[in-house]
Amino acid sequence: QVQLQESGPGLVKPSQPVSLTCTVSGASITTNYFYWIWIRQPPGKGLEWMGAIRYEGSTYYNPSLESRASISRDTSKNQFTLQLTSVTPEDTATYYCARGGGPPATLGGPYDYWGQGTQVTVSS
Hints:
Helices cover 0% and strands 51% of the residues.
């Protein structure tokens, strides 16, 4: 059974960076075909696709994040990490990691496994 678990700081001050980690069990993040994504949902709003890292390490981002997002991975720990810089209260959201499969054209989904989400609140 594939499981994803997000972890993060919870509360972040404006203008600070935030780092969120997704720990994967039951599957390897380097297995051919699959990719791993970050999605967030601000309070009262819909899901926003943030970015993805594919099995071979290539990354893709939502242009609306204006280069504030960066996704990396630690294959020895089977984890991938989202770093978001210069956060504002508008970055307050529940952040999810998930798995999808296929070529880059399918990065928008569907996704077969999701984490439970981690809340990030940006406040001074």
